[in-house]
Amino acid sequence: MAWQLQGTYFENCSCDMVCPCTTSGLSMPADYERCRVVLAFHIDSGAVDDLDVSNLTVAVLADTPPLMSDGNWRVGVFMDAAASQQQAEKLGAVFAGQLGGPMAMLAPLIGEMLGVETAPIDYTEDGRRHRVRIGDAIDIEIEDFVPPLNPEGEVSKLTGMFHPANSTLTIARATASRVSAFGLQFDNTGKNGHSAPFSWAA
What pLDDT is recorded for position 1? Predict the structure, then answer.
């Protein structure tokens, strides 16, 4: 089964800016007792086993020990309500790592699946700002970071990262963050964020 997805992604986690988990390839502990992160992937174009899955969004919520490489992640997935049952099944297999690709490298770290929920997902990008609303459960906005002394300059980026989305990630900070899902409630406003295009295939 061949598949390919292209689109954009962003995340918001509970670490202070910048996340040591990301910059160390998961080998350094998070800033706090738990790492709680939401990753949102909007698919601009893509197909799984010849089924078109363009213009859909999938979000992954993870609650992990401070050292993410220790495993025992607790993970929940939000599937776009706009997806048909067949599209949801195909995308679910991709994001569970069952069909190979970047998410397959994270699958061994998952200790508990908290479930898969279907909800309306509103994913928007406006220049340096990225926002996702998922039903009544999640509302997050991040803004890519530009040094205050050079406000018209380039967005700050990390390169050479070990990350499923991209090896180059923007540095960002959440301007709003509210999560109440899968039995977890937290607010990562002011905390770390990243954004990047992604292009996957297997």
Answer: 60
